[in-house]
Amino acid sequence: ETLDKGLEKSKSTFFDKLSKAVAGKSKVDDDVLDNLEEILVSSDVGVNTTLKIIDRIEARVEQDKYLGTTELNKILREEIAGLLSETNSGEETEYTIPANKKPYVLMVVGVNGVGKTTTIGKLAYQFKKNGFKVVLGAADTFRAAAIDQLQVWADRVDVPIVKQDMGSDPASVAFDALQSGVSQNADVIIIDTAGRLHNKVNLMNELTKVKRVMQKVIGDAPHDVLLVLDGSTGQNAFEQAKQFTAATEVTSLAVTKLDGTAKGGVVIGISDQFKIPVKYIGVGEGIEDLQVFNKYEFVDSFFK
Ligand code: GDP
């Protein structure tokens, strides 16, 4: 029920608008489709993905010759879940890590302010709760506050943290964290990285170096590169996804702050445009307010 609560804003806006768009109409016509397009764009699904969805609905109208507005919800739900299926198996409900990769190395990237530290803290909490031994690595050495904040979460969750002074080499911290994780027999090591987007080449060089140095300890690390995006920033989130995917291979996404926004549709657009699975969604500031992304629950929360 946290998901429903968290997405209340997106949900009521999307559903209310959709109800208004079809009010007094029995069949889906050009007017309804125009309205639907507007609703999807204003929910931050993104223009490309919106047009894809509209095309699919149009194709269904053509195929069946007639589409009642009462069926529109059902079909829209199917089409959106279908789009998400291309990248998200969408069946996951638990915080798990592959058993054959131990320690599992999760490298977390994203710009400052998106909720990166909070997401790492929430993840550490969830993994620990699920019986995994967690070690954190504070490789965002650019800001003292980033190291301090991660320390606060490490204390709160009661997991070990590996850190150095501000300004030290991020790759060196990552190296230490992996060594420490291995020697402590950790199940999962979560590495925070610097959130600067000063320029693409620097970002790429830094992330590449961190990866290369980690591989000296664990040959196939990192096993997952998780990009954290702020779901309330709409097109900015798209732009950041573009920059980070150009700088490094991003293998999964966490979309935060979906509780405070009417723009939950950003999840659909980003997942579709970048073909990267959304693994987690942030629905609040609390320690429990992170959810494993489940596409069926997500889509249903829009239409309930
Ligand atoms: P970082 O700079 O990317 O590490 O960002 P922080 O983790 O420090 O988070 C920035 C702010 O966003 C903090 O006030 C967090 O409490 C808040 N925040 C993070 N995730 C969420 C979320 O899912 N929902 C809400 N409402 N706030 C969040």
UniProtKB/TrEMBL annotation:
Keyword Hydrolase: yes
Record GO biological process: SRP-dependent cotranslational protein targeting to membrane
Domain SRP54-type proteins GTP-binding residue range list: 277-290
Keywords, alphabetical: Cell membrane, Cytoplasm, GTP-binding, Hydrolase, Membrane, Nucleotide-binding, Receptor
Entry-linked SMART domains: AAA (SM00382), SRP54 (SM00962), SRP54_N (SM00963)
NCBIfam families recorded: ftsY
Subunit details: Part of the signal recognition particle protein translocation system, which is composed of SRP and FtsY.
Protein name: Signal recognition particle receptor FtsY
Species whose genome carries this gene: Formosa algae
